[in-house]
Amino acid sequence: MRLTPFLLVLPAVGYIVAFSFFPTIDAVYLSFQDPHGGLSLHNYQELAYFNVGGAVLDTVLVTVGALLIQLALGFLVASVLSREFLGKRALSTITIIPMGVATVVAAITFSFIFQTSGGYANTVLHSLFGINVNWYQTSLSSLLVVMLADSWKNTPIVSLILLAGMSSIPRELYYSAAIDGAGSVRRFIHITLPNLRSFIGVALILRGVQEFNIFALPLILIGDHPPLLTTLVYNLYTTTFPEVGLALAAATVLLGFILVFMGVVIKLTGGRSS
Amino acid sequence: MKWSYIGAIVVGAYFLFPLYVLFLLAFNSPTITILARYPALLPISLTLNNLVVSLQGSAFIDPLVKSLETATLVGVITLVLAVPAGYGLSRLPRAIAYPFLVLLLVTNMMPAIVIGIPIAVEFIKLHLFESVEGLALAQTLITLPLATFILQGTFSSIPSDLENQARVDGAGLLRRLFSILLPIAAPGIAAAFLISWMFSWDEFTYAILLIPYHSTLPVTIYSDVTRGNLLAGVAFSLVFTIPVIVLTFALQKYLRGEYLAGGIKA
């Protein structure tokens, strides 16, 4: 066993651990400190005044909703792109573009689309059905705007992963299923889905964790109304700085959710399916 | 067959519409875009005036330069760490390399907003707050794991026979690195650099936490829009987007699900 490869890997791993694990542990530790330096639940009790429960609920809603939209669209894109047709190359290029568009730019573009007065979505709805929608009237519709904007930006990565999965399924499985008389829906349920399990798992973990963390999009689209965990953390941070305990307590709640989510997804998708 | 085309049109329209809206906002006269009750869906009063007015403000150059500096610095720091790591991982047995890759992936999942606040507090003490260097150090956290994945794949595809032969001929590690490995791995290294550059260019969370006052372009766009300076926000957005779309096209063959899903195929 040679030592050189180890030594080459260490700087990168050390860097990540130093800058990522230690601040995280620091954050959790500091969140349990009260203003007098003792350890207590002071910050967490205080959080109750800042609607942390609502922020948790909103975060879960956005995460689940955005993941469902992205999986559905990702499957649509991947199944279109897994066929041969004229213009396939052009389409596969188009479906990647949003990856290159900055999150901030996507957020601003969608804020113009879903403007209550003077929005492009309302132009379309008005000319088709003569109606005008206030997208920010309820929490749920505000969150829907966030989910849609996020899904536009992030569906490409989901479809790339699903496409990689689909192309790894042997064609013969589909042929023999078709000969046995399985329609396209049954082929999808009995061949595509089971074979894609681990790919769906990877997509869910990658996107799910990011979904809990979406920050620029909600900040620009809905600000603090309704708050997500990230925008709540940021809001607490900017309003109480240089005291950071309260913000870090909210951040710790967020971290807890991410760890639970990762555990659940790994459990559901069976980890490595080999 | 017919369904493919319908699907293709739906998918294409969905991905293109927001970009089309950005185009309309940037090049149409404001009276039919942001000032209209129902903004027009067609480019009927094209003008360059919006861009000219917005880009003349000097408030634009400084953030642009900061974004360029940060992204380039992130690319460099990432390569310095990821090239050796990628090579090292490709030469380790899978059973040992795999846990390292998982460790990198897991740390990539730590929320920036959780890490960013303690880092900001620390950087204030170290005088790295409000500095491009400090920001680049933090943003490397996002790019390093991804670059390591790509480079691990690149180096794995180089047959070790080639290296062993050179070793028999008496070439040391550095010699092998510079005359054999790096030239063959060049496309992968370029991709890792560009992807790091792109991710850093886009990064918002660390930027707003670590250089909140005179920040990079994404944060500037955000503050322009929140201050009601909408046309400037749109113009900057367009400038911000074009280079990255060009890069995305250039990188398209490297943006593959296989890289992301690499771990599960083993």
Broad structural category of chain B: mainly alpha
Level-2 CATH architecture of the largest domain in chain B: Orthogonal Bundle
Residues in helix, % of chain B: over 70%
Q: Cα-atom Rg of chain A, whole angstroms?
A: 22 Å
CA(first)-CA(last) distance of chain A: 27 Å
Number of helices of chain A: 14
Shape of chain B: globular
Q: What number is the mean pLDDT of chain B?
A: 83
Question: The CATH topology of chain A is what?
Answer: MetI-like fold
Q: Would you count the extended β strands of chain B for me?
A: 0
How many helix segments of chain B? 12
The first-level CATH class of the largest domain in chain B is given as Mainly Alpha
Q: What is the CATH C-level name of chain A?
A: Mainly Alpha
Mean of pLDDT of chain A: 86
Oligomer: heterodimer
Largest protein-protein interface: A-B, 100 and 93 residues
Order of helices and strands of chain A: HHHHHHHHHHHHHH
Low-pLDDT stretches of chain B: 262-266
Described by strand count, sense and barrel closure, the largest sheet of chain A is:
none
Name the helicity range of chain A.
over 70%
Keywords (chain B): Cell membrane, Membrane, Sugar transport, Transmembrane, Transmembrane helix, Transport
InterPro entries (chain B): BP-dep_ABC_trans_perm, MetI-like, MetI-like_sf
Subcellular location (chain B): Cell membrane
Transmembrane segments (chain B): 6-28, 40-59, 71-89, 101-124, 136-156, 177-198, 204-223, 230-251
